[in-house]
Amino acid sequence: MSVFKYEKDADGIVTVTMDMTGPVNAMNGEYRQAMGTTVERLENEKGLAGVVFASAKPTFFAGGDLRELLAAKPGTEAEFMVNLLETKTQLRRLEKLPVPVVAAINGAALGGGFEIALACNRRVVLDSPGAIVGLPEVTLGLLPGGGGIVRTVSLLGLEKALPYLLEGTRVKPAAALKAGLVDELVSETAQLVPSAKAWIKANPNSWLQPWDHASFRIPGGTMHQPHLIQLVTTATAMLAKKTRGLLPAPERILAVAAEATLVDFDTALRIESRGLTFLAMTPQAKNIISTMFFQMNEVNGGAGRPKGIAKSKVKKLGILGAGMMGQGIAYASAMVGIEVVLRDVTLEAAQKGKAYSEKLLSAAVGKGRMSEQKAAGVLALITPTADAADLQGCELIVEAVFENLELKAKVTQETEGYLADGGVFSTNTSTLPISRLAKAAKRPVDFIGIHFFSPVDKMPLVEIICSEQTSDAALAKAFDYARQIGKTPIVVNDSLGFFTSRTFGTYLDEGARLLDDGVAPASIENLGRQIGMPVGPLAVQDEVSQELTRKAVETHRAMDVLYSKADTQVSSEICERLIKEQGRGGRYHGGGYYDYSASGEKTLWPGLQAFVGKPAVLLPEQDIKDRLLFRQVIESIKCLQEGVLRSVADGNVGSILGIGAPVWTGGFLQFVNTYGLQRFIDRASELASRYGDRFQPPELLLQKAQSKLAF
Amino acid sequence: MSTNAAYIFDALRTPRGKGKKDGALHEVKPVHLAAGLLTELQRRHGFDTARVDDLILGCVSPVGEQGGDIAKTVVQYAGWDESVAGVQLDRFCASGLEAVNTAASRIASGWEDLLVAGGVESMSRVQMGAAGGAWLQDPEIAFKVRAVPQGVGADLIATLDGYTREDVDAFALESQRRATRARDSGWFDRSVVPVRDLNGLVILEKDEFIKPGTTMDGLAKLKPSFDGLGKIGFDDIALRKYPQVERIHHVHTPGNSSGIVDGASAVLIGSEKIGKELGLRPRARIVATAVLATDPVIMLTGPGPAAKKCLARAGMTTKDIDLFEINEAFASVVLRFMRDLDISPEITNVNGGAIAMGHPLGATGGMLVGTMLDELERRNLRRALLALCVGGGMGIATIIERV
């Protein structure tokens, strides 16, 4: 019994219902076997009038089998090509059947799933939000290698196809119809197959694909034509700017798509296969798939959440402090229907915090992304107040006042009593130890850290911090809340700077150390970007503000924990001096490492190198890049070693979503796996001998390398 | 003898792929074709690429992906040192040999030390004629220069010299036989570098255009290629210059004319001094080169006079040459060449030629250097003369000598 159910009706139309082993249909060995048999049977079917491809799963077809792709190792390119060729040949044979073939798309048809649909003469889609189509391969470091590039370019033309291919956009049914990616929408699942069959009966001769017509010309022209040459030249520059040469996938996609217009269809398919074979072997693809797919699913699926505790939902949330963080948390929570009490010392301050949501909502309404009614409903969920008693009955309170121990202790004591039974008190802090803050609480077991990132409505990560006393129930509640508001929660243990702030601090510090070594500020910034960090370390320091760094240093000094974890002394000292001697406290304070114009443009402060006062040096570029990257990697390994990180997945996902670890690395731990543990140890030791002990490979790394393990 | 003799250290080529969309090399960009040879040259000899002064590549349709000084792009794509320059040149079908001869002259001048010369042409991707040209497409100029397609010229040579359809087909058959034997015996293996994709997987390993099953009967069935063109008027234009001919016999077909193929060539040429310095062993010396032009209307009679000019320059006669290689643009070109020089078919195109293997326009000249070099070594002979007929009535020749 095949996993492709084959049924021929009285009219001679065969419906192939895909029902593969496992929860979804995917392109793997089982698929190739089933599709091969099916195509052969169709070719030999007597009295065949048409074919409908349907799915027995809630989704149509999920795409490539990522485990299979992850397992493909350099050296197996020839075998990989053979499998790819088989998949492609089957689809080619399918589209050359002398009868109409229709894809009846009941749910998501992404990647390989959409490639199957593209090899059909017609695509009928259920008009439901879940029935999205698209080619998201690029987001995994791959390209659509089942004919996806060539058929999309042939169907839409290069210009229209490129956005779908380069951005991996998932397209909803109505938009897909408008774009010409699909041909028909139906409103009920039950209409799918009948509608497909009706079209087959009405169009028995519509079986030749456009690209197999002798007179076929790619819509919009080819790369022989000036307008497309210009388009691609522009696209190349834009892409280079975006990816900085760090992501091979979009580069290859653009190259294959452009070349597809210069050669015949079958040759283009072969070029596409070679491109996917290449990408599948790259460390970038392995890193991205491993972290952004598998580990991300693990993390979001609750790997860090205690087992055996029932899932909870927050209905009423209290937020203390209506500043930048508090107002963002209020917005993110109200957006998913949570009733929010936003409390500040004055009603005016609290109302100002609510106004933030009002601004975001009216912008969404203005852009037509939200109805006025919905916006009003969201806004109505937020109650600004100065009265602590309004917090009565909250299942969760998020304290988001200034980073000050006394203040935080005071508001904790003021409000803790209003929590509902079994309620949890959480503190949003990025620098203060949770165990210390928990001392103010009556029930430290129900006290937990939830570290949000700014701006809250855009940043996908929250870092949940458990003190030694935090109960499993409190963690579960915090975790569930994070998922409720659509965030990805990583769970770490309490330690100075937790995981994200501690590791992030080393990037800033290494930037400062390079400055202190006499490296030109522009080199530091540009090479920071060249490794894939969103911005250079000096620019980040300005955003954080030198002033905040100085305050954190003061606090840590007062608590007697300064530099007890990451050694960020150089950046701290430069920040302190910069404020004291130059009054440069950061962007918010009018300028830091950079000058800021009224229009928001920034330019490196020309006096910076003279201020640092070190003779200019020219270090090898690779050293500068590796220093900026390795510092963070080594700090992440130390976090794992010390048990601050509870899992590798949390470290990888957290570093990418929270502190801008370049996606090509797969996160600061995964990076070492594909760089090579021993190679990393050797290079780190080299950097240590040249630049200092902070680059010494941590013990955990040495152990892993010795036992031939990976992270 | 010049104090700055130009030595050939190595000569590589790609296999020739059928120049149509079903040809194996159709999926390969011309830049990639040529760059693969640079990579292999460096791999085989291990020199520091910064020592190479220039890459000179012949290319006859330097537009689109062959445009914009393709040689410079090839140097960069191959990842050679950024100090290496690149220049593309065009002397029609002789471009590849022109590149080699230019390199030889530049080395002989003593002003440069190490050059790579050859050519590239993906005829399946950039159509022959894509670069246009006033001599054919501008009526005013075409009237004045009496432009006639080369095939008509080839047929005119056959008519003038009395080569019958059978003569030219028999020549084609022998070209196929010789090329098949050489390929299958591995005689091309030293210089042919398989074309690989970005994964290192082989796309084409050996010449694919050769048709070992060719027969006289099969050849006889092919239709003349230039009959139609002749009849629409080009025969008349040609015969205005050759009034002694009653009419042109159109004997050339796809079977006895050079094939349309894709390929590239690269010859490493340098001085004795740099050879010693980099440990490169000279395989041959470029003795002399020559280029000239003859009647542009019949167009294809240049090789004989060019060979004679080259021999004279070298102070040699045909007796001093062991092997001759004349590009098989059309069978009649080779027959005319042998008649002009009074040389035997036994020592001419001993391993077949472009009729069997194809003629990747800009690359061919460089390919012939490798073919001759390998064959001189295999037979332990000393000297070869290479020649090609060239658009516009030009002819080109080069004498190489093993050292």
| CATH architecture grouping of the largest domain in chain A | Alpha-Beta Complex
Helix content class of chain B: 25-40%
* End-to-end gap of chain B: 14 Å
Question: Which shape of chain A, going by the Cα principal axes?
Answer: globular
Q: Low-confidence segments of chain A, ≥5 residues, pLDDT <50?
A: none
Descriptive notes:
- The complex is a heterodimer of chains A (711) and B (403).
- Chain A has 711 residues and is α/β, with parallel strands linked by helices.
- Chain A folds into three domains: 265 residues, 2-enoyl-CoA Hydratase, Chain A, domain 1, CATH 3.90.226.10; 178 residues, 3-Layer(aba) Sandwich (Rossmann fold); 176 residues, N-(1-d-carboxylethyl)-l-norvaline Dehydrogenase, domain 2 (Orthogonal Bundle).
- In chain A, a hairpin with an 8-residue loop joins strand 15 and strand 16.
- In chain A, helix 3 runs antiparallel to helix 11, helix 12 packs across helix 26 and helix 19 crosses helix 26.
- The longest helix of chain A has 21 residues.
- Chain A starts with a strand and ends in a 5-residue tail after the last helix.
- In chain A, 51% of the residues are buried.
- The mean pLDDT of chain A is 96.
- With 403 residues, chain B is α+β, with helices and mostly antiparallel strands.
- In chain B, 37% of the residues lie in helices and 19% in strands.
- Chain B is built from 14 helices and twelve strands.
- In chain B, the strands form two sheets. In chain B, strands 1, 2, 3, 4, 5, 8, 9, 10, 11 and 12 form a ten-stranded mixed beta sheet that branches. Chain B has a two-stranded antiparallel ribbon with strand order 6-7.
- Chain B is globular and about 60 Å long.
- The mean pLDDT of chain B is 97.
